[in-house]
């Protein structure tokens, strides 16, 4: 529901901030006071077109900001999440129009495009007047309204899921066919690359191992000389470190027997003797294994050179070479087996198409069961609203693609019923449009093409009344629905609007006391002159003010006691 609306520097409005309530909100006021300006301003924040002409004279920009409660509005929340916008129980929409022509849109203080603002607005408000947000005038919404009326959400979701799976499989098929064509062109290249890589057979970690072995072989002479020299120094030489340390240890043992304070250093010296012995053994063993192998050295250099060439061609590392081999190996195998893969995918598509077709047929049958009930209900409601000779038709069309010939398959957007293919969308095989005639003897025409003004508003009201419990746009706005309506019909219009307000928040601009008297909340628009400037303001009325305003609508500006009495009776108030 719409909680607050702030309008600043828009047309005659310098600044207006109003808090709306749930139920029926009525706006009245003198002709020319600016009632419709409020609705136009709200349309601006819902994404309707605007230009700098609407900016109040002397101001730099016009600003319209609205706060909507969206706790139960799943569609709006889905749009917000899809745009990575903050989702909360309240939604703040703001539109700024600059005198320089700049147009800025915000959702929860985050800049967004006008199209995103429009998308959100489509699921928040239905404006009935000369506005773009009239959902019933958009043919694409008719199928949704029919499904809501019939309670067909479960069948609709079943078909939508099957249709999504089917189109996903078609995407896979298209990708496979595109890959087939591409692989056929690259098959010889892949075969050559596979043979080239397999001929060398690179292994993960091989390069590092070879480089280590190469380094050792290239330095074998130095290693032999150095280890021989070290072994002499540590163990075999005349003044070998090992021998000297043994002498030192023996002397320390003698000293320790005399003075126990030498025990610790004696033990450390003994450890040093053991360590030198181990070092000498390792060096001797290493020295004995040193190879002088020029042939192996050349083999390693040759293989490293070949690995370097592969790395340069296929990714810069042995890991990249192996990954490339795995990838082209899989694609080459696929190229060798395309017919089997495509046949397998066709089998999956046929099975999913069968499921999708069955769901589409069940959904279509259920929709047709509800058509006559909707037609009858709308005609009956229109009669209550003063359109006694109306005709209403829900037209359901199925668009056949052609007949199967056992070879080529039609586009992914089709399902099969019997031998025929039908165009399908995620909503099914049905294309729904509401047709209406409001005059006896005239052929019913598409709802979007019927007359505008009070008559079309009553048509909308009739449809909204029978769809009220199922169609869940949170806010309905009726801008002067009472054009050309009076007397008994006005009472019927008021009753229908009041009934709608049990399921939706309703804002209605009216001149009729029969409608205004039913308000849950009543606002009056007033035009004021101050400092040689005209300003429009919106004021919420208390009960006695409401009675007086309804009396003015009944009898004019001169309100009498009898007029007040009549107003109270119309409003269902006890005599005061």
Describe the structure.
This protein is α+β, with helices and mostly antiparallel strands and 576 residues long. Among the domains are: 1-130 and 471-541, P-loop containing nucleotide triphosphate hydrolases (Rossmann fold); 206-332, no CATH class; 543-576, no CATH class. 53% of the residues lie in helices and 19% in strands. The protein has helices at residues 35-45, 74-82, 114-121, 142-150, 153-200, 206-218, 220-236, 241-258, 263-289, 294-314, 318-336, 338-384, 454-467, 487-500, 513-516, 543-555, 561-571, and strands at 2-10, 13-19, 24-29, 61-69, 90-98, 103-107, 110-112, 125-128, 391-398, 400-403, 414-417, 420-423, 430-437, 445-446, 475-479, 505-509, 521-530, 533-540. Strands 2-1-4-5-6-7 form a 6-stranded antiparallel beta sheet. Strands 8-15-16-3-17-18 form a 6-stranded mixed beta sheet. The radius of gyration is 43 Å and the shape is elongated. Residues 403-408 have low confidence and may be disordered.
Assign the CATH architecture of the domain at 1-130 and 471-541.
3-Layer(aba) Sandwich
Alpha-beta classification: alpha+beta
By DSSP (H or I, 4+ residues per run), the number of helices equals 17
Physical arrangement of strands within the biggest beta sheet: 2-1-4-5-6-7
CATH superfamily of the domain at 1-130 and 471-541: P-loop containing nucleotide triphosphate hydrolases
CATH C-level name of the domain at 1-130 and 471-541: Alpha Beta
Strand content: 15-25%
Spans of 5+ residues with little confidence (pLDDT < 50)?
403-408
